[in-house]
């Protein structure tokens, strides 16, 4: 079907009662999709903590559009790439359909409800209310497309491409196409397949005819061959495109196009994961769906920016944690060479929040699985499906039964990817069915109370495994120890056996203790760390390298995210030790890359552990906490900053951390060696030293076997004298789907960033653009991303511009201006370019 964007000039309003709506009380605002309605609710201490203290609600989106008379002989469908949540679609006041899941792509046939030759209106109602453990956002937060096709047409997800036979000389391209005849007569049509390479040249073709009875749907299969195929992999992500065209008497009726890659993928416990026959260890990052200052609104440029920066930081895989990945993320992974583990849900039948998807699961799970496979099928980046995230009932016989059911539903449609489940071994013991068998010995973890289905508390878990957390430690701090001892218990291994049997790869959250245990007990098992602690990077990666049956690891988390505030925040004596940080906590604060897209120190440590970085890295523990260091936290990294600009008296002692694959690291202060420390004494790949603070330059020089192998330096910033503006592109498309990221930084006269500068900045724009978002990576703040001013964090802020789409047809440029008290105002002009 022919696709056209359907994103501009929607009206959004709070959905009130029928009386309020009929009285026009609710009002409305004109927006271009994608749009996150939750951002506009604001934050307060009485907001939802899981959501980062944003407020929940119900909204309605409406759009008027013209329908030509000739569409009366067409099929018209709306494609929603994501609407959060419980989307109810109405056309001209008539109910057209609904979709419960907020993350699935879904299609809505609207032609039965249209007025042809006049103005029509589509209205979508959504809600978000106590249904998520993270920031969900709300509204139509991903693009919407209008699909128009002939009565004989290709189904919206009807084109699927495989490459069943590949060698260096020839690759077979097998395209299956679902064609439907909704006309009242039998039709015979011609179909043509064209395959093009990355340069746009036709490299394979095939032509076939198909006869369809009225109302009949059939699968048409094309087969063609590419000579000298180029394979898709993470280093060279070569893409091809396939187009199937339907014709009748030489006239085009419909067509469908998709990109695809030529590659093989397999898993076994001897050689692990192999892409095109070569073993690949997954250096993975779990990834939430929000885009920081944009909330949940998803743009192609935003998705590509995330994947590009994650790959530059050393990752080669992402897991769409607890929800399906967007089409934009998958497209970016295809183009850039990033492997994907796409996940289904965060729960099945047992809830985790008051009104989550568990209430809809039983009725909707099959449609969600079908939508996931249809979305992912042609993406070479997708190597596996996960059927859940920390499912509570997974350790019960019926949980294992559901594992098989869901896995087989996927396999019936796509048997080319491995299937896993992100299982938290702790949760296998949280819910146990009543049993008449003799209870397991207490040393094997001990039986759950037969009539109890409540989650075990931290005290229960500590008692069961003999772990005693220090009285002044937070539960987060003791979790790593508790997880290791509980998940490694024999009883957990027994309970995991049946749900694991339904999978191709056993995925474990925080379960690396089982890698060696299961290698002996289950020699045919392939394993994967679907979620792991930051604090165990080096240990976990060594275990992965030492065990062929473990194919990789996904850290929690690759990019900081809204919601679950403070889960990874370093916590100091006297601070709240709970899992969730009080308001104004905003982000999880446990990521390699911060909310604005800048790398944190842990990212460089991980890159060194991966063996991808030769030079050392240097950061400084916050001096204000030197006498009362942070307590351990399973998800947190050391509270350090890549800065040598501190408001300290001369020669004040500071603690520096240097990471490196070396024997020792020397610390050079203003040309003099002031300390030298062995690497790995207290923590793998790390050396620490206490040195005097003196403005100037501090350098870490790493040595292996006595020879220098790398160096890294930090310099003190002088007084801030200028505002730096750096756009990620010199142009912005005159398309409301395009955005432009502009980094704002506070610099001295030499261009050195002052990470200690926290200065209010005000942003204004000129031309047919809007300020779509403005903010920083600050993990706890009262500032709004929708304001035109913010306070810099570590010397930085981030602005995102978007083409407004109104009155800008003749404009050729737009300008962003940033002002701060005491500093020269800085402006940056970007070109406005027509889309190709």
From TrEMBL:
Q: Which GO terms describe its biological process?
A: carbohydrate metabolic process
Residues of the Glycoside hydrolase family domain: 725-829
- Domain Glycoside hydrolase family 2 catalytic residues, every copy: 273-423
Residue span of region Disordered: 436-458
**What organism is the protein native to?**
Amnibacterium flavum
Residue ranges of every copy of the Glycoside hydrolase family 2 immunoglobulin-like beta-sandwich domain listed in the record: 158-263
InterPro entries from the UniProt entry: Beta-gal/glucu_dom_sf, DUF4982, Galactose-bd-like_sf, GH, GH2_Domain-Containing, Glyco_hydro2_dom5, Glyco_hydro_2, Glyco_hydro_2_cat
Give the family this protein belongs to, as stated in its UniProt record.
Answer: Belongs to the glycosyl hydrolase 2 family.
Domain DUF4982: from-to ranges: 653-709
Q: Which GO terms label this protein's molecular function in UniProt?
A: hydrolase activity, hydrolyzing O-glycosyl compounds
What range(s) does the Glycosyl hydrolases family 2 sugar binding domain occupy? 56-147
PANTHER family noted in UniProt: BETA-GALACTOSIDASE (PTHR42732), BETA-MANNOSIDASE (PTHR42732:SF1)
Designated name of the protein: Glycoside hydrolase family 2
Q: Looking at the keywords, is Glycoprotein present?
A: no
Keywords, A to Z, come to: Glycosidase, Hydrolase
């Amino acid at each position: 079907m022919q696709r056209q964007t359907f994103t501009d000039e929607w009206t959004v309003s709070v959905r009130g009662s029928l009386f309020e709506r009929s009285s026009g009380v609710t009002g409305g605002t004109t927006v271009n999709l994608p749009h996150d309605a939750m951002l506009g609710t604001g934050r307060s201490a009485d907001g939802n903590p899981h959501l980062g203290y944003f407020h929940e609600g119900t909204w309605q989106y409406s759009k008027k559009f013209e329908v030509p008379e000739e569409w009366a002989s067409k099929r018209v469908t709306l494609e929603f790439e994501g609407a959060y949540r419980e989307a109810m679609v109405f056309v001209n006041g008539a109910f057209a359909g609904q979709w419960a899941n907020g993350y699935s792509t879904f299609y809505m046939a609207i032609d039965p409800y249209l007025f042809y030759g006049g103005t029509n209106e589509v209205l979508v109602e959504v809600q978000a209310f106590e249904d998520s453990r993270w920031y969900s956002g709300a509204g139509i937060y991903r693009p919407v497309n209008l699909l128009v096709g002939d009565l004989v047409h290709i189904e919206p997800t009807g084109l699927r491409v495989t490459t069943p036979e590949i060698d260096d000389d020839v690759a077979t391209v097998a395209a299956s196409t679902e064609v439907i005849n909704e006309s009242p007569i039998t039709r015979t049509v011609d179909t043509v397949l064209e395959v093009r390479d990355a340069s746009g040249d036709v490299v394979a073709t095939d032509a076939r005819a198909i006869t369809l009875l009225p109302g009949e749907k059939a699968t048409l299969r094309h087969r063609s061959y590419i000579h000298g195929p180029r394979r898709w992999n993470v280093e060279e992500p070569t893409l091809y495109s396939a187009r199937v065209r339907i014709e009748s008497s030489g006239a085009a009726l419909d067509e469908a196009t998709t990109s695809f890659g030529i590659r093989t993928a397999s898993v076994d416990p001897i050689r692990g994961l192999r892409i095109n026959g070569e073993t690949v260890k997954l250096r993975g990052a779990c990834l939430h769906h929000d885009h920081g200052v944009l909330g949940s609104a998803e743009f192609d440029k935003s998705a590509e920016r995330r994947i590009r920066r994650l790959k530059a930081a050393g990752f080669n895989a992402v897991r769409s944690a607890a929800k399906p990945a967007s089409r934009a993320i998958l497209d970016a992974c295809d183009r850039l060479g990033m492997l994907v583990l796409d996940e289904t849900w965060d729960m099945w039948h047992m809830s985790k929040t008051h009104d989550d998807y568990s209430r809809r699961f039983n009725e909707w799970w099959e449609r969600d699985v079908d939508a996931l496979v249809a979305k992912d099928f042609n993406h070479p980046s997708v190597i596996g499906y996960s059927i859940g995230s920390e499912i509570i009932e997974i350790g019960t016989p019926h949980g294992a039964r559901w594992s098989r059911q869901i896995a087989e539903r996927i396999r019936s449609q796509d048997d080319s990817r491995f299937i896993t489940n992100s299982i938290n071994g702790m949760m296998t013991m949280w819910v146990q069915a009543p049993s008449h068998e003799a209870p397991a010995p207490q040393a094997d973890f001990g039986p759950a109370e037969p009539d109890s289905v409540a989650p075990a508390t931290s005290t229960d878990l500590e008692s069961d495994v003999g772990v005693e957390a220090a009285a002044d430690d937070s539960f987060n701090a003791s979790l790593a120890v508790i997880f290791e001892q509980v998940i490694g218990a024999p009883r957990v291994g027994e309970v995991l056996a049946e749900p694991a049997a339904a999978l191709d790869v056993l995925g474990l959250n925080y379960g690396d203790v089982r890698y060696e245990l299961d290698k002996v007990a289950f020699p045919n098992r392939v394993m994967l760390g679907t979620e792991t602690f930051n604090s165990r990077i080096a240990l976990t990666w060594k275990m992965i390298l030492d065990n062929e049956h473990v194919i990789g690891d996904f850290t929690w988390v690759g990019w900081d995210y809204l919601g679950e505030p403070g889960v990874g925040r370093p916590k100091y004596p006297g601070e709240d030790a709970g899992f969730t940080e009080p308001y104004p906590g905003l982000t999880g604060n446990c990521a390699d890359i911060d909310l604005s897209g800048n790398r944190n120190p842990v990212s460089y440590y991980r890159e060194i552990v991966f063996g991808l970085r030769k030079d050392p890295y240097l950061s400084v523990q916050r001096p204000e906490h030197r006498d009362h260091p942070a307590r351990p936290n399973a998800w947190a990294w050391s509270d350090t900053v890549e800065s040598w600009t501190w408001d300290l008296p001369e020669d004040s002692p500071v603690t520096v951390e240097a990471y490196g694959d070396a024997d020792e690291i020397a610390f050079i202060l203003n040309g003099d060696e002031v300390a030298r420390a062995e690497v790995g004494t207290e923590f793998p790949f790390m050396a620490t030293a206490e040195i005097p603070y003196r403005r100037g330059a501090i350098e870490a020089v790493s040595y292996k076997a006595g020879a220098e192998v790398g160096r890294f330096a930090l310099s003190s910033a002088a007084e801030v004298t200028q505002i730096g503006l750096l756009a990620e592109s010199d142009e912005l498309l005159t398309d409301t789907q395009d955005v432009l990221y502009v980094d704002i930084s506070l610099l001295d006269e030499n261009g050195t960033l002052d990470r200690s500068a926290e200065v209010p900045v005000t942003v204004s724009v000129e031309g047919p653009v809007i300020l779509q978002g403005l903010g920083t990576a600050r993990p706890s703040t009262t500032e709004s991303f929708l304001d035109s001013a913010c306070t810099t964090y570590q010397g930085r802020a981030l602005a995102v511009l978007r083409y407004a789409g109104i009155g800008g047809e003749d404009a050729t440029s737009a300008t962003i201006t940033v002002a701060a008290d005491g500093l020269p105002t800085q402006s940056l002009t970007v070109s406005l370019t027509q889309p190709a």
